[in-house]
Task: inverse folding
DNA sequence: CGATATCCGACGAAATCACTCGGATATGCG
DNA sequence: CGCATATCCGAGTGATTTCGTCGGATATCG
């Protein structure tokens, strides 16, 4: 996703290219990107010169969305899930006092995850087209 | 550990007892408690009427300590570990911009974990010896 | 002595993670 | 058209981790 953010605005990027840049197996990326597409974070264009593009500018994509798409609902424990659908109330819930701990941990995770966007992780994009408004995102 | 906190001050509690209360296999608890002992969170007294006791009052044991003892250093990713010993710098570190995300997530986790103590999770201890100062910790 | 405990090390089943394989389908270009 | 380049799709594998089991040695109280 960071690679896609890097290429944002310059047309679709192929998995083969990203695989080379990150050296990860192409076949693996293929599998991952399915989830991203289903989550509506990327769109694909098939055929030659095809590839994937972000559907929104990097600054508008929270890391929480990315991780939820890739790894499912955020839940340090199955009884403290992000997604109310998957929140299986454990059979121990009556006596279990630990749940609130996990809920707090989860909230801490999700809030930091949702407070960072792809733009925060995308490379500084040094020496871009124009220089003048360069120092917006100082590292 | 919550069970041990509950019994704090009333002598050692046997694993068999805790196993019954939490219905977990005794043999499994045995394995877990080894780590707690090595971390200095509990002490054992062997023989009949033996068992385990917390070495400190529940309010002085942060949940972070407990989890670090049980599950090792806190690290959402191997490249963002709590413990500098285990912080294996990944071979990708030069190009990887995602690390700071994991570091922030880890800090969020550790700070919420260290901000809660066993006393926070220990049962309200309803109907204790004396009634008068009962409403200290309202659920 | 004998019941009740902790101690210790190894083993096993199930789930998850990261990744592979083989092929079908769609698109651009000469 | 025809071929190279891509995405699409579903099943399968291998290593690691997690949760637990089993059997027996050692210590202590009554």
Result:
């Amino acid at each position: 996703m960071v690679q896609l953010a890097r290429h944002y605005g310059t047309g679709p990027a192929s998995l083969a290219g990203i695989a080379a840049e990150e050296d990860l197996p192409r076949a693996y990326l293929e599998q991952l990107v399915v989830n991203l597409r289903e989550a509506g974070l990327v769109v694909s264009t098939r055929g030659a010169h095809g590839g994937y593009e972000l559907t929104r500018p990097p600054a508008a994509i929270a890391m929480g969305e990315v991780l939820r798409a890739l790894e499912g609902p955020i839940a340090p424990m199955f009884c403290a899930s992000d997604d109310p659908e998957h929140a299986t109330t454990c059979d121990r819930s009556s006596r279990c006092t630990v749940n609130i701990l996990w809920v707090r941990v989860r909230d801490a995770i999700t809030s930091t995850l949702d407070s960072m966007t792809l733009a925060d992780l995308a490379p500084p994009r040094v020496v871009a087209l124009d220089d003048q408004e360069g120092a917006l995102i100082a590292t």
Q: What stands out?
A: DSSP finds six helices and two strands in chain B. Residues 12, 14-16, 30, 33-34, 44-52 of chain B lie near DNA strand C (CB under 10 Å from a C1'). Residues 99-114 of chain B form the longest helix (16 residues).
